[in-house]
Design a protein that fits this description.
- By secondary structure, the protein is mainly alpha-helical.
- The chain has 2 domains: 3-372, no CATH class; 378-477, no CATH class.
- The chain has helices at 3-10, 13-40, 50-61, 83-95, 100-128, 134-147, 158-178, 182-195, 202-214, 218-243, 245-251, 261-275, 278-291, 296-315, 327-341, 347-372, 378-394, 406-411, 434-437, 452-457, and strands at 400-403, 441-446, 463-469, 472-477.
- Strands 1-2-4-3 form a 4-stranded mixed beta sheet.
- It is globular, with a radius of gyration of 25 Å.
Length: 479
């Protein structure tokens, strides 16, 4: 039998359907294998900020405030709104562990659950309100998991905040489809909650009312904005009462990121490396829908997709911004695709395109994480734990410790200062009070790796002693 004859016999509808389904199942297995591997990974910094957030959880479990004065020891800057972090801390407290590896495992598993619940939300909305077939809804819902950038997988507020933002937009779409104003009420409340999970949701405060204005839904604007303002004021009052001025000091203007146009292209380039032409196809489809003057629903979704994409591009002007800013428009694109997928006559072709894109996304994500390192040696964790115990026993109890070693920082969390070591070069706070306690501080580094804190905050004219301890250089200071 010739190859061409075999292909012709194989290429009937039944065989193609089986193949595409098998590939989809394989993609699901691969995806969840990676996610579960990451849950059990002992790497404490799969993405930027994870170690800092766990350090904060450990301190809150110890009885400290979520927001501490950034100008007094231990000089922590928790720069996010609190809801996501309170959820992570609460989950850690329920399981009653202060072993930081257990916290990584518990909270990463919780974040995966949040991601799955978002996929279920997509499935329910697509089936009930978009009238998409069951099979198409399953595929598009799983696509939401693939479109979640890695920052949404780990112990950062993104996983919860992004899900809430999608759900807020989802309820506004449901309101337009069902013509039921109460869903705009829910959308406004969820938008407020999303903001207090992470500040990125502030974009929806502007984008959704403008999109509703452009499709002339004036009553909807009133309901949404009223709900948003009242719920925002309520939540703000709660958190301000709980944390005081330090709450505002931490989340507004504490970090002074520089602006760089080059960073916009750098971030977009990295996103394209993972997701290929997807963002461009999405924006072109959204622009086409607006220009074509499609139905109000289609135009509304398209305007929100374009608006959130532009916000992502603007946000990536900041040095330190990363690909997570493009997660929301990509996820909202699923609603837009759902409107068009119903009109695709050849579902099998659509399934093949889906599988090819799915594997492309998956491969990009794997390489993205592989560059950071999936697994961190448990042996190194045990070694660091032993060294931490020896350091704790060797220094007076009132001594502060500064180190850039992430594991050591978590092992000695109750003694460390300047825990957010990556951002002190771009903050606006005054560290004059450190002059009074520098003589009570030691600096611990590996391989003579000195950073901004060592070079700019410590007064190295006061160095009293340098000594080697195992692989570490320990520097002590005098008055």
């Amino acid at each position: 039998m010739s190859i061409l004859h075999f292909i012709k016999d194989f290429s009937n509808t039944k065989n193609i359907n089986k193949l595409s389904s098998a590939l989809f199942i394989l993609l699901c297995v691969f995806y969840f294998s990676i996610r579960i591997t990451l849950i059990f990974s002992t790497n404490t910094e799969l993405m930027n900020g994870e170690t800092n957030n766990v350090w904060n959880i450990l301190n809150v479990l110890e009885g400290r405030s979520l927001y501490m004065n950034p100008e007094e020891a231990p000089y922590e800057i928790f720069q996010y709104t609190p809801i996501a972090q309170l959820c992570y801390t609460g989950i850690s407290a329920i399981f009653g562990s202060q072993n930081y590896l257990d916290i990584f495992l518990i909270v990463r598993a919780f974040v995966l659950l949040i991601n799955i619940l978002l996929a279920i939300f997509f499935y329910k909305v697509l089936r009930k309100y978009f009238e998409v077939t069951k099979q198409q809804s399953i595929w598009l819902s799983f696509l939401s998991l693939l479109l979640l950038t890695p920052q949404n997988w780990i112990i950062r507020p993104d996983g919860i905040a992004t899900s809430l933002s999608v759900i807020a937009v989802g309820f506004s779409i449901i309101a337009l489809i069902s013509k039921n104003g109460k869903h705009f009420l829910i959308s406004g409340i969820i938008t407020s909650i999303s903001f207090f999970a992470k500040q990125d949701a502030i974009q929806l405060f502007v984008i959704l009312p403008i999109a509703l204005l452009l499709i002339e839904e004036y009553k909807a604007i009133f309901i949404y904005v009223s709900s948003l303002v009242i719920s925002f004021a309520f939540l703000f009052a709660i958190f301000y009462f709980a944390f005081g001025d330090i709450f505002l000091q931490s989340i507004i203007g504490g970090v002074n990121n520089e602006i760089s146009l080059i960073n916009v292209f750098s971030v977009l380039n990295r996103y394209v490396q993972i997701y290929g032409v997807f963002p461009f196809v999405l924006i072109l489809l959204a622009a086409y829908s607006v220009i074509k003057q499609s139905s109000n629903i289609t135009v509304y979704i398209s305007l929100v997709v374009i608006g959130t994409f532009l916000f992502g591009a603007a946000a990536s002007l900041k040095l330190g911004a990363w690909i997570n800013y493009y997660t929301l428009p990509s996820l909202l694109g699923i609603f837009l695709f759902a409107l068009y997928v119903k009109d695709i006559s050849n579902l099998l072709t659509a399934k093949y395109v889906y599988v090819l894109f799915g594997f492309y996304f998956f491969t990009g994500i794997v390489f993205h994480f592989a560059s950071a390192g999936f697994i961190f040696s448990k042996q190194e964790y045990n070694s660091t734990k032993k060294i931490a115990e020896e350091i704790r026993n060797a220094i007076p109890p009132e001594t502060y410790i500064y180190t850039t070693d992430r594991n050591l920082k978590l092992q000695l969390f109750d003694r460390t200062i300047f825990p957010n070591c990556e951002i002190y070069g771009i903050v606006k706070f005054d560290y004059a009070s450190f002059n009074k306690i520098q003589s009570q501080s030691i600096y611990i580094t590996k391989n003579d790796t000195f950073d901004y804190v060592y070079n700019h905050i410590f007064d190295n004219n006061k160095i009293k002693e340098k000594k080697l301890f195992k692989d570490y250089l320990i520097i002590s200071y005098s008055e």
